[in-house]
Amino acid sequence: MKMTRIIAAAVAALGLAATAHAAGDGKKPEHHHWHHAGPFGTFDRDAVQRGFQIYTEVCSSCHGLAFLSFRNLGEEGGPFYGYIPDGDDHGGHHVQAVNANDNPIVMQIAANWRFPVVEIDPETGDPIERAPRASDRFPGPFPNDAAARASNGGALPPDLSLIVKARSHGADYLRSLMLGYSDEIPEDVNIAPGQYYNEYFPGGAIAMPPQLIEGLVEYSDGTEATVEQMAEDITVFLAWAADPHMEARKRMGAMVLIFLFLFAVVLYLAYRQVWANVKH
Question: What average pLDDT does the segment 89-110 reach?
Fold first, then answer.
């Protein structure tokens, strides 16, 4: 009897926990068609470039890319791979770059980055600052988490390097989150001062204010900067940032599958040849 009560109590506790968790979950993100989805999907290079522009002009003041290096932008699969401007009205032409660290676009982005690289002087032990190089990781906007919280009302802005992989529903969640702000707050949601209502955020109360407004940026390729377009572009860029070598990995996977298929055919034909004159 005692064991039965313990089991019943455990089941009830699990049920309450599941209910509480469900109540705190945000709305299921809207499914969106992504060019990079699926086994043969590739990144929309123009969208990645536009998304990087949004990150640079809007997101980088609060969110870092700690696991991404500048040189990744110029590597194969990156938004500026082999991209050399020629000064014409079409934005430049593409040639193959020998080394991502020597890509002039990447070098310019690194040199003009809004935050310096902080290093320790080996002789004095004092912190020194210098302009980033293409081989450096993206310097973040804050020296530590405490400074980040102090500048954001106690909330810690997450690093965006792996945000697409770290969140359930990935790219769909991020796009929906950017579009999910509303002034119509349900009665069962408590929004504290300094918070905003977003139906896709767990609990509904988010510390980050709405970031995207019509015409917020002026795209260099002439694309109209609607809220929907910007939400899609920044999501595509962050999907690339979370997996910059995705296209090479997919190509390798396809080659391996083709090889295995051909190898299986050869094995089958060899089997038929070896046992052709043997009665079973």
Answer: 74
The span from the CA of 103 to the CA of 79, in Å, is 12
State whether 51 and 97 are in the same domain: yes
Query: Cβ(84)–Cβ(109) under 8 Å?
Result: no
Structural domains in the chain (count): 2
Q: Are residues 137 and 250 in the same domain?
A: no
Which string of b and e fits 71-105 if b means at least 16 CB within 10 Å? bbbbbebbbbbbbeeeeeeeeeeeeebeebbebeb
Other C-beta atoms within 10 Å of 196: how many? 17
Q: With contact defined as beta carbons under 8 Å apart, do 197 and 52 qualify?
A: no
Q: Looking at the domain assignment, is residue 259 inside a domain?
A: yes
Compute the average pLDDT of residues 2-25: 42
Please report, rounded to a whole number, the percentage of residues in the chain having pLDDT higher than 90. 69
Residue 237 located in a structural domain: yes
Tokens of 258: 């083709």
CATH of the domain at 209: 1.10.760.10
pTM beyond 0.90, yes or no: no
Q: 255-266: per-residue pLDDT in tens?
A: 999 999 999 999
CA distance 224 to 232: 13
Domain residues for the domain of 138 are 25-245
Based on the fold, state whether residues 75 and 172 are members of the same structural domain. Answer: yes
User: pLDDT by residue (tens digit) across 149-208?
Assistant: 999 888 899 999 999 999 999 999 999 999 999 999 998 899 999 899 999 999 999 999
Verify that 107 and 187 share a domain, yes or no.
Answer: yes
